[in-house]
Amino acid sequence: MRAGQSGLARCDFLDVDLDTFIGRIDGLEDRPVRPDLAAYDCRNNRLAQLGLEQDNFSEAVKSASERYGRERIGLFLGTSTSGILDTELAYRRRDPQTGALPANFNYAGSHSCYSVADFVQQALDLAGPAMVVSTACSSSAKVFGNAARMIQAGLCDAAVVGGVDSLCLTTLYGFNSLGLVSNLPCRPFDAERNGISIGEAAGFVLLEKAAAHSSPDTLLLLGVGESSDAYHMSSPHPEGAGARLAIQAALADAGLTSADIDYVNLHGTGTKANDTAEDQAVFNTFGGNIPCSSTKGATGHLLGAAGVTEAIISALCVRHGFIPGGLNTRTLDPSLKSHYLLQNRQQTVRRVLSNSLGFGGSNCSLVLGQGLKR
Amino acid sequence: MKPIKIYIEGVGIIGSGLNGWQSSQPVLAGTAPYIEAVIVIPPNDLLPSAERRRTGLPVKIALGVGCEAIANAQRNAAELPSVFASSAGDGENMHCIFDMLANNGHEVSPTRFHNSVHNAPSGYWSIATKSMAPSTSLACYNESFAAGLIEAATQVHAGSQAVALIAYDSPYPAPLHEKRPISSPFGIALVLTRDQTSRSLAELEIGISRKHCASTPIAIAQLETMRLGIPAARSLPLLAALASRTAGNIVFDYVAGNQLDVAIRPTGP
């Protein structure tokens, strides 16, 4: 992001014949899951494993496990399509006589919505409460709320939250059928934006109960706000009413006002309707001066992994005093009123609000950063 | 770990031979015989007809049980946060998508696609009830009901006055059915509240333990088969205790050697 580089490239996934750009993680095809968990081998769990191997994450969880006990660490993951690519491909190999799926197809280890949490729980040797949240593109933002509630209720002392979503045919062709896939790398907030670019990602965060006196540079989950549009299955509320409710709920949960936020990490998918709705929700809450951007020009739309990826980006913004300018956007849509950044900025960032808005009108906003000195 | 105390204020149920809470109670309590029958989904005009036509079986079941539970609790659905729990969502719809992708030159119907998300029932529910309250959609394979109950309980613990928990499952058609058999469609809904009210049916104390004892069965043989054959029907022992108005402890299997311990105590007249 500092270099302004995007991970999007022309679609080269399997035999997909769409004129679009995707964010494909290279090499997953050659990286099976570890042998003792071979029953879970599928693209989605391979991606989860690759994610767990980054940034000493597994070691950090191991250390937390030693402190709290493996049964006291919860696991709450978001995904929209889990490992259904395996089923899509298995349907190409049905027995011509009986119609049966191939013998080596394993539903519970791949397609099942819970498969990714089952796999990650074993990979990290955890034994606390676990579940998968699958609310389309808000999934891995909402898991922060699950974890906070579980810790608050005393059902666990710490939690691994995250999201994993991988490329599959259902989402590529499905979004295409709705006319929502761009033929160019997605251009959030651009006057000529014409859809999303689909990416894939795994992201994980270890959450612990905040100490009574945390140091000023401790990164805190300050607030979670959730709402429903109650409007349409695949179109956002035109005035962004649901998104606005989620933003306000997150601020209220954090005990903050809009003036306490330094940067809004937008959902910013790059479709006409989504960006218009979100712009109204953000402008009506924050006004037109607060810097905003979408990072989807760099990553593509990560669907069920978008929330956690953008929460991690938001945390990095606080840690590094950095605000990423949106990529690919050339001419800002003059009808949008929020202060959308096209250039990177180096400035103090104490608190970020990050939006995740999904199909079915499922909205979630997170506030991350430093606490107020009150 | 202190158990979480909540109250059940309303129930809705749709299953084979279990059509509605009123008529299901004697069957669950063992005072009337269980008679297998096709599920009956009460007519529902909450969704505009254009939307209703597009919905699949899980949405119809979820709306049916949710509305029944909320009516029994005399609550306003628009004000309640909701928790949806299902092992897999709409099996028929997914089968059609896989079939299209494998055979029809990659065309997917837009309606089939937007119905494919796990939170489709939650989305339709919020549209039908005009509820902008938070709603989540969970999956935990065979333990999806237990996961939903924990999530709803923690929401009440975190300050919600009342939460609607809606658990449902429907079978996959062949060939997926052989790989993931779910025996028949089933749905239940509970309205769970923080405070006891005049409508409360029972008090629950919910905790997680690692005692490794067997999950609580249901005494009626056909219902025990149903309990084991449908993830959402893992709820049946709780409903049986509620129907027979008996106090007791119910153990639900959960993940990674954990179990959900639920102490139930009838309240009210």
Structural notes for this entry:
The complex is a heterodimer of chains A (374) and B (269). Chain A is α/β, with parallel strands linked by helices and 374 residues long. Helices cover 29% and strands 19% of the residues of chain A. Chain A has 10 helices and 15 strands. Chain A has a 6-stranded mixed sheet with strand order 8-15-14-9-10-12. A 4-stranded mixed sheet of chain A has the order 4-3-5-7, sandwiched between helices. In chain A, helix 1 packs parallel to helix 4 (115-123) and helix 5 (139-152) packs across helix 10. Chain A is globular, with a radius of gyration of 20 Å. The relative contact order of chain A is 0.17. The model of chain A has no long low-confidence stretch (mean pLDDT 96). Chain B is of the alpha+beta class and 269 residues long. In chain B, 36% of the residues lie in helices and 23% in strands. Chain B contains 10 helices and 9 strands. Chain B has helices at residues 21-29, 49-54, 57-73, 91-103, 110-115, 120-129, 144-157, 176-179, 221-229, 236-244; strands at 4-15, 18-19, 82-85, 135-139, 162-169, 186-193, 202-209, 248-253, 259-266. In chain B, strands 1, 2, 3, 4, 5, 6, 7, 8 and 9 form a 9-stranded mixed sheet that branches. In chain B, a hairpin with a 2-residue loop joins strand 1 (4-15) and strand 2. In chain B, helix 1 (21-29) packs across helix 10 (236-244). The longest helix of chain B is centred in the N-terminal third of the chain and has 17 residues, at 57-73. The chains are: A alpha/beta (374), B alpha+beta (269). Chains A and B meet through helix 3, helix 4, strand 4, helix 5 and helix 6 of A and helix 4, helix 5, helix 6, strand 4 and helix 7 of B. Strand 4 of chain A pairs antiparallel with strand 4 (135-139) of chain B.
